[in-house]
Design goal:
TIM Barrel; 23 helices; homodimer; alpha/beta; signal (chains A, B); globular; about 10% strand; ADGF (chains A, B); about 525 residues
């Protein structure tokens, strides 16, 4: 033991990683011919001493994990006991038959089953803080979208003798706008009468989501389908009167799912009016801000919502110059609402951030970056390197960061510079980055205490709850089995800490969240009796 | 820039990870109410200065990677140019259509296709050093196994009217041994005549491998099938005359695949003779050693082979006491051949190492541990913690270590204590830990320069080359796109460095490998012209 302990001793508490670093720079060639002969085992120790050291190491490893240093109140401890009892049962069933363990399967096969899970029921009611990564036209339930198709003056354009919906448009007369492919316009009412309301409902339910495709040939194919939904929804949602209603309804659905705050990304399309006149982008933002204020006024527990301007990345650098100008103008008019900037669209097919460095450096400091980066499994591609640019450009958070764990230096920079990773478990699965949640790279971020928040990206398209399903997979599938209420509480707190809320606003947010949290803790204890 | 650089400066070369460490111990509760307001972006810098820094960071990240510090000779650089040209073409095709990129698919769908890949052809001929993780009855090609079934005096026991093979046995008369389930014995010749030679060949080809099952309901189901093959092969291979031949043929097949050294794990079954008499375990080892010497004598470029005694882990601690005694006795008789100890069988269903600490601590220091650990995706399970026990018990290498990256402390210990991880890419896929090689956790070990070797585990059961397919996936699917000849050379060198070869033996091994390596480099250059 004596040979071993002197090597272990200096780690206590701190420089573990530094010592290892020495080895990281070893020249393979040079040491190839060296033999290390010192004893590295504890075989000369007693079993009792071994067990003490073993316990200490296992404990140290657990202590590093996200949230493990939070101290729970007596009440929280009581609630934790309830939560962990339920969690352990679900894991025990999974260990006996892994094919019945939801986080090992595709969400499209388990959606209904999960709704019945006691752990899901608990998480659904939990005040989860805010959603910091979600796209504005992929927020609402499919049911709400179908409701919208009953609004008056809606037209549908179909191809293949009515079998394929190509576009929607609100209009007093037959629309004359160009569509992505040739199709025939008819009033939605007539289409519904002709095809039968139930048939149309079923058809649209499928078209407004990624179902039933749990297995695309590649992530490119998944993305094509995914972008197709956005395009189909365009004419339905970009109608000025619908735009605000959709957002208001999203806030309502999120609120009911235990979400008190929403930072949404938007490409900010110009909206159209019934006669075809177009509004300006400024109006798009104004409608959002007004709806948010209206919602806040009638929901005193709601913290609020802010906007990240996130136009498409597949453009020439010159266009990004325009983006920056737009961002500055909008921020000037809506300084407390339009607060950040990002670029969206499939990273792998768009351009890397590196192409846009010049215009991006001109963005004023007070407009924060919240870049998508590393939403790929192509290790070492230029897209992969978006992580480096995002960090060096000063991003406040990283969208997805799926590839981050393959970049130990970037991962350490995130921890050092306190950059949170917006982890979107269900999105990563549906868009084919990985299948089994137990292999999701966020497990490593949790283990290494890299700041993360859990988000839902486009819950509408996978027909999940606004945030609860992503929490379910993070808690049951991604985090270690021991992860408990401290982990959940840390995630909720992180979503406020790493939001764009600052100063007084942030303090108010914490207290609004704390109020619901305390109530939930009471409920968990009460309902378990 | 001035605000940023002072923070970056101290990292140069070293304490990156330490600085980050400070944040790792942050109390979530405490800092939740703090706001960090310093500037963290480079927006006040010029694009030119940004690009210099950006390049430096990207370069630093690449430099940490496994093998990146190896300096190539002029000839090696010329060969590297050839290799990277071919590699880039294959990646380019994959980027255009990821569904055509083999490392994104299951090996059972791509096996034939890969054999035609120019990158695979190059790797096949490359002197890859040694295989340090392989099980002794899962080494040879299916073709060789079928050949063995033509040996005289072989009987087969079948169920379901001859449709299901249950057991084999060499015997002069109808065997009387007990089988796993009821079945009828008949001479292999008669069985073949009755069913048709080609039908039997096709049937056995399937039964001797995991094909065609690329999608089991769970990894437990895959393991059941997998263990079933071992059991079926028992009577065919544990016949004393076959035992030595099988091993000799394995050495031949491995040698032809560019493998000069083999450390094989064996449960060391007692062998049977034609009359049913049983030999001792000692004889099993003696046969191995004799065959190895015979092979070495006729293959002067071959380095050799050593044995790791690896009995089943699903036993009572008392049995492990017996294992230790056996290991000590065998090592006494075969001190330079039977050099190590491990426990095998599905980790998740067996017992954790922690249960066996007492007997394991009594193992003499000179018999090394080479434990399987972390071959699971159940994060935080007792099985997961096998990693900690393996390390504290002084394991020289870790078998699989699939879960290692979820344990930053254990991963650092591996780097610090120079414990190599035996990565078996194809095995992990077939046994259902993960599908897409691009998500294999070894990518993170490569990125963080944790020592690894590439092994094949049970190549017979997945019908792959003894090592080339695993190298193919490591090079093309797991490593970063930039990984080149330095990466490959480092893997080959690692397989000697982390082997049980020491001192003079190891120096000889390096020179035998170097001889073939130089020749291969010449060939790569010559053939490209």
């Amino acid at each position: 033991m004596s040979k071993y302990l002197p090597r272990l001793a200096p780690w206590r508490g701190r420089p573990i990683l530094l010592m290892a670093q020495r080895h990281a720079t070893t020249d393979c060639d040079k040491i190839a011919h060296t033999t290390v002969s010192m004893s590295r085992s504890l075989r000369k120790t007693t079993p009792a001493a071994y067990k003490i050291l073993r316990k200490a190491v296992a404990r140290l490893e657990q202590m590093i994990c996200l949230g493990q240093r939070i101290r729970l109140s007596d009440k929280e401890q009581a609630a934790n006991a309830v939560i962990m009892r339920v969690k352990k049962e679900e894991i025990k069933r999974g260990l006996l038959d892994p094919s019945k363990f939801s986080p090992g399967q595709h969400i499209f096969q388990t959606l209904k089953h999960i709704r019945k899970s006691p752990i899901f029921q608990l998480l659904k009611k939990m005040p989860k803080g805010g959603v910091l990564h979600a796209h504005d036209t992929a927020l609402c339930s499919t049911e709400y979208l179908i409701e919208l198709t009953y609004r008056e003056h809606l037209w549908i354009c179909t191809a293949d003798e009515g079998c394929r919906a190509i576009a929607f448009r609100f209009s007093l007369e037959k629309p004359t706008i160009e569509t992505l492919e040739p199709c025939n316009w008819e009033p939605m009412e007539e289409f519904r009468q002709r095809r039968g309301a139930e048939n149309v409902r079923r058809y649209l339910q499928r078209r407004f989501s990624m179902y039933p495709f749990s297995n695309f040939k590649s992530n490119n194919e998944a993305w094509t389908h995914f972008m197709g939904i956005f395009m189909l929804l365009d004419g339905l949602l970009c109608y000025a009167p619908v735009w605000g209603d959709y957002y208001y309804n999203a806030l309502q659905e999120f609120y009911e799912d235990g979400v008190q705050y929403l930072e949404l990304r938007s490409v900010l399309p110009p909206l159209y009016c019934i006669g075809g006149e177009m509004l300006s982008i400024r109006d798009t933002v104004a409608i959002y801000q007004a709806e948010m204020e209206r919602f806040k006024a009638s929901h005193p527990d709601f913290i609020g919502s802010k906007l990240i301007y996130a136009p498409l990345r597949g453009v020439e650098p010159k266009v990004v110059e325009e983006y920056v100008k737009t961002a500055v103008e909008l921020n000037k008019e809506f300084p407390n609402f339009m607060i950040g900037f990002d670029l969206v669209g499939q990273e792998e097919l768009g351009r890397p951030l590196n192409d846009f460095v010049e215009p991006l450096l001109t963005m004023p400091e007070h407009i924060h970056f919240y870049f998508h980066a590393g939403e790929t499994n192509w290790f070492g591609s230029p897209i992969d390197e978006n992580l480096i640019d995002a960090i060096l450009l000063g991003t406040k958070r990283i969208g997805h960061g799926y590839a981050l764990t393959k970049h130990p230096l970037s991962m350490e920079l995130c921890r050092l510079l306190d950059i949170a990773v917006e982890v979107c478990p269900v999105s990563n699965q549906v868009l084919q980055l990985g299948v089994d949640y137990r292999n999701h790279p966020a497990a490593l971020m949790i283990a290494a205490n890299v700041p993360i928040v859990i988000s839902s990206d486009d819950p509408s398209f996978w027909r999940v709850a606004p945030l609860s399903h992503d929490f379910y997979f993070a808690f049951l599938g991604i985090a270690p089995m021991q992860a408990d209420l401290r982990f959940l509480k840390c995630l909720a707190l992180n979503s406020i800490k790493y939001s764009a809320l600052k100063g007084k606003e942030q303090r108010e947010a914490y207290s609004k969240w704390q109020k619901l949290w305390s109530k939930w803790i009471d409920d968990v204890i009460k309902n378990s009796k």
